[in-house]
Design goal:
This protein is of the alpha+beta class and 341 residues long. Helix content is 35%, strand content 17%.
């Protein structure tokens, strides 16, 4: 086993595109452009199970209130939405993540902050406008959403999805922090019954095909621009649709007034994605796919439980006001400790 000879994070990439995605995420975190620390897929399965073993199955985190009104879901089940205008989704683009993270436009040596800001707001912004226009004209970005709501109840480290009559549909087992607040995602749900939002969004397969063609033709700058835009547009669509879901749940009044604050979780609840610190096991996608059947919008799972096309993202939508990002990190025993993501 490689863990016996190397204790650091190991990232597996089945091809150059997946390797670049890992590098994008690592560098964005190191530059401080995201609070989401990448979790090495090679360690996820063993590590998160160690976290579950490290805590009692009936333990609940410290300080999470149960005195929270459960919002009424507008419907139970899933719905499909297509045809969203690309310019409308682009309003939710995180330009810091795109320009500095995906496109790697960092401040040059000897360049003042003012000069760098001017460069981003003129030349780089012009590149973005041109590329978005091309994506609209050639229909390179083909956004689609499948989302919905389900009844759930927590049981220790498990979150159980139930029918209206109480029958179990499926369940997830989540890791728990063995130290600190001892948080686990099920803690944010009322044992008497609650509501979970779910979403899967995609920019479609055409943007992946176009980017791969650029890469094979050695058009690396064009590849970097289109690939990065596709990934960040998927994130923008996830942000947009999370906002729509907060409106449907009647909790959007807590939304912050600016986009920058929204990007820093300036709203009630949280959006947790499989593969990230609070729920690092990508295998959780299996139950999500059982519930949502996202093949209806062209999303599939790879053998490594990654979403295909790559320009797609998933999320569990939690309404509890105390639900924010948290990290489950490794301890000396290769378990996990508390922190912030």
């Amino acid at each position: 086993d490689h863990r016996e000879i190397y204790s650091g994070d190991l990232f597996y990439g089945k091809d150059a595109f997946e390797g670049l995605r890992h590098m994008d995420a690592i560098m964005a975190f190191k530059r401080g452009e995201t609070t989401e620390k990448p979790v090495a897929p090679a360690r996820r399965k063993a590590s998160s199970r160690a976290a579950v073993r490290g805590s009692s199955a009936t333990e609940r985190s410290r300080g999470v209130s149960l005195d929270v009104t459960v919002p009424k879901a507008p419907f139970i089940g899933t719905r499909i939405v297509k045809g969203m205008p690309v310019p409308e989704i682009a309003k939710w683009l995180n330009r810091t993540a795109l320009f500095r993270g995906r496109w790697q436009y960092s401040r040059g040596k000897g360049q003042s902050i003012e000069e760098y800001s001017e460069f981003l707001s003129t030349e780089v912004e012009s590149t973005l406008r041109s590329l978005l226009a091309r994506c609209v004209e050639e229909q390179i970005l083909q956004p689609a959403v499948i989302y919905g709501y389900f009844y759930v109840r927590p049981e220790g480290n498990d979150l159980i999805v139930i029918e209206e009559d109480g029958r179990e549909l499926t369940r997830w087992t989540f890791p728990r922090q063995p130290e600190g607040r001892k948080l686990s995602i099920p803690d944010f749900f009322n044992p008497a019954g609650d509501v979970l939002g779910v979403q899967l969004v995609t920019m479609g397969s055409k943007v992946s095909d176009e980017a791969q063609g650029m890469f094979e033709r050695d058009e690396y700058t064009d590849y970097l621009h289109l690939h990065g835009l596709g990934v960040e547009m998927a994130e923008a669509l996830a942000e947009l649709w999370h906002a729509r879901m907060r409106e449907e749940l009647g909790i959007a009044s807590d939304d912050a007034p600016t986009m920058d604050e929204i990007f820093k979780q300036g709203y009630r609840g949280s959006r947790y994605s499989f593969g990230y610190p609070a729920c690092p096991d990508l295998e959780g996608h299996v139950q999500l796919f059982e519930l949502m059947k996202p093949d209806r919008i062209g999303i599939a799972l790879s053998e490594e439980f990654q979403l295909v096309p790559e320009q797609s993202t998933s999320a569990l939508i939690v309404h509890h006001p105390q639900a924010k990002y948290f990290t489950i990190m490794r301890s000396k025993e290769d378990s996990w400790t508390s922190g912030s993501s």
